[in-house]
Automatic annotation (TrEMBL):
Species of origin: Marivirga sericea
Protein name: TonB-dependent Receptor Plug Domain
Entry's localization field: Cell outer membrane
Gene Ontology terms: biological process: siderophore transmembrane transport
Membrane topology (UniProt): Multi-pass membrane protein
Amino acid sequence: MKFKLLIFLFFTAAPLFAQQYTISGYVKDESSGEVLIGATVVDKNDRANGMATNIYGYYSFELPKGEYTLMASYVGYATKVIEVNLTKDVAINFSLKEETSSLEEVVVSARRSDENVSSVKMSTEKLQIERIKSMPALFGEVDVVKSLQLLPGVSTAGEGTSGMFVRGGSSDQNLILLDEATVYNASHLLGFFSVFNPDAVKNVEIYKGGIPAKYGGRISSILDIQMREGNNQKFEASGGIGSISSRLTAEIPIVKDKSSLLLSGRRTYADVFLGFAQDENIRNNTLYFYDFNTKFNYRFSDKDKIFVSGYFGRDNLGFQDLFGFDWGNSTFATRWNHLFNEKLFLNTTLLYSNFDYGFDVNSAGTGFNWNSGLQEYNLKLDFDYFLNNNNTLFFGANAIYHVFAPAEITGQDSNIQSFELQNDFAVETAVYLSNQHTITDKLSMEYGIRYSSFAKIGADSVSIYAEGERKSPENEIRTDAYGSGELVKHYGGFEPRLGIRYMVNSKTSLKASYNRMRQYLQVATNATAGFPTDRWIPADYHIKPVIGDQVALGYFRNLKDNAWEISVEGYYKWLQNVVDFLPGEDVLLNDRIETAVADGIAWSYGAEFMLRKNIGKTSGWLSYTLSRTQRQIEGVASGEPYLARYDKPHDIALVLSHKFSERLSLSGNWVYASGAAVTFPEGRYVISGQNIPYYDDSKRNDSRMPDFHRMDLGLTYELNSRWKRYNHEITVSFYNVYNRKNPFSIEFRQVNNNDPTFNEAEDGPITSTRPAAVKTALFGIIPSVTYNFSFK
């Protein structure tokens, strides 16, 4: 009896007294053949009966025998209605036509109009790629990651950087996926731009909390980005020419309705302009990046489809013949979608990710080359099982093989000795099971469990230290050697997930979520933002994985037929085994990284407020985040709690766009954030005539940079075209409209009246011996012009 009751509670069955038949299929864009993610197919007379498509555009649900009017809809597309006499299981594919909205009904959302209220998901944001493209940007270069920084709970590392901090987490605590492959460094030009070309991007979704069981490996957020598949109906091309870069995308149908190829490239040309400089020193410098996206798909049948996609990008910086620096990412994904039957869907994925960097130095006849990198090989099996209208199961497994190459230094002469830090190897595995469960019309849940495991393997050598003593070379008592493939250390554990949604009424819901995450990789850096030289280190014999728990509560309400959205979310996150670096320790060249770090606990909490307008001539959102992030680690700040480097109590973003006519639109952003927490020197001392700053580690991060604020504006005008299939437009952007001098860095040094970098009007009178804080701002007002075009 108890067993039957348990089964009933776990799977609330559909009515058992009538024969149920399954309706399933795909929802696609009629003009391109691209599947539509999150499109809905429902019974027009009872919209509770229906389903949203998954990330591959597939849906499945049950209805009793009878006649029905099925309605497929997706925001921005004309709704399609089909009559069906249901006497057996049927497969129905919908092709929706993109709808040209009237000026008074401009829609900027790419989701169901009431999804924020009706869905179990919370702490999750989707950004439509058209919205991202409309935002004004630095040098006119549209940036996916910088757009996410305008959402509540997501903050930036600083002016011009593409690193992001989510709900008090560091930048390495975000899992960034491109077609499910991990991107370890998502920045170009040392963080000024991200690696994601918006012309190749189809869907952008970020999970800040309530993270589904299928995701793991990071404790703060999941950024899931899917590339476009390419038009399988007709040839299509698009691109743009901007102030510092140009881009071109081609979509090529291989077999109509079955196969297509996407090719998308982007390159900056700052190095071209350097060649025209009169100064020979400038002409010999190097400064550019490029990236290339490609994706191929082929549908063998209604049950089988394959995707092959790749990303390749690289940066190259050089100062004459003295210094050179390059880094890049490459990812490769092969996916096979297989439909066993109308209820069971499988996605099998084989993934490869690579990140590497290198630099060379040639100075005063002495030089060396440095190379570092990491690779990841990943196999995933993800099942969707549409059990009935009230339950959808998700389950699967994955295995990852990690290779870390911390550093290899090759001297170019006898003055520099070549050496190599030992490589690290690890195997990470996971299995998961979750259920989306509609219990009643008002109450829905998504609950699941994930078990993850991490094995650090050889070849490796491990230093053993005297028990109870600090891990340092003088306290080392022996070194244990492990052969290739031999187990060095194993970690693992369960990661429960829970989400609950209660509908107060048709326009209002209350939500709650909890998730536990384990992170087995961390970045070793003393910087705030992510830089290419950051060193990724795995959990090992001495360093434990980070464990993060988060609870969140939310209130969601829609007004005026879903034209307005209001949401308030509060969260609390607590972390175990958080690593920070001991004062004065080196991290890049340390072959025993455990001697430079200590672990402890961290916690963050906050409230996020969002007001969003989706429909009308004027649309956009206003967000405000109030938060606090602290750490407590023995050996750091005298063992007392201290602020994390990226703690920002106040963060405000206003994002607006206004359509004056069918051709002319204006967009603008205004942001404000508390200054980052920093440690300023307490004084200085002089050694051999050099001023050396003195830092008191007991006061770690007890000061702040000045508050940050900035406004950007962009004006877009659609040009006339003689050709029906050709569209083009001009976008004029102004970054930092009111020329705010946001400090990027503050340097403490001796200044005099002849120092051109010191502003006496702002910082007061100067004496020839006065120490001063010299602020450096990266950007004033920056205008840019971009010409965009498309051929359809």
